[in-house]
Amino acid sequence: MCYCSALVHVPSRIKVLIIQHPQEQKHPFNTGRMAHLCLDNSELVVAESLSEASLRRLLQPHSALLYPSLSWLPPVESIEPESPQSAALEQLVVIDATWRKSKKMLHLHPLLQKLPRLSFSGELESKYQVRKSSMENSLSTIESIALAIQALEPDGDFMQLLQPFERMVALQLSEMKR
Q1: Cβ contact 8:38 at 8 Å
Q2: How many CA atoms lie within 13 A of 141 on its CB side?
């Protein structure tokens, strides 16, 4: 299923660093790569584990992790949209993996656990009908990035990032009906 015709190019002030689990790289519904293809200011790194030195080289001074505030994670500063911290934010770090694998990746990277965190609250509804999550209120990587960057940079139109995602889902659903 090719969604290439729906790809968009979206500039952003905040760089998005996507750390993708190697098993996601070849997954046909890979929304981390899709987000990277659409975001002009993004970097995609495929690795389950990075050395601390490599991770430090990737992180910018004012970085935050886009991840739910789960009880097993150490308490850190929360980034709220339209706050002084969000205005200074240079980089949003996103883990692209299944929930189980993303937890493992966080355990392997204490440096990521210590970053200020951006999380969503309330009821979230994913349009990712072709792949299910084991966690309630979870979104695909591209949906999470679009919501986060839109909240952090409200003057931009980051919801257009969802165009190739919606195209991919529509193609998959039409194929499943055959």
Answers
A1: yes
A2: 30
57 assigned to some structural domain: yes
- Span 119-131, average pLDDT: 64
The DSSP symbol for 158 reads: G
pLDDT tier at 20, thresholds 50, 70, 90: very high
Residue 58 belongs to some domain of the structure: yes
Half-sphere exposure of 146 (CA within 13 A, CB side): 24
Q: What is the pLDDT of residue 36?
A: 96
Using DSSP's 3-state secondary structure scheme, residue 10 falls into strand
Range of 154's domain? 11-177
Query: What pLDDT is stored for residue 68 in this prediction?
Result: 86
Asked if residue 34 belongs to a domain, the reply is yes
14 pLDDT more than 90: yes
Number of domains, the chain: 1
DSSP string, 77-109: PBP-TTSHHHHH--EEEEEES-HHHHHHHHHH-
Alpha carbon dihedral 132, 136, 140, 146, in 10-degree steps, equals: 150
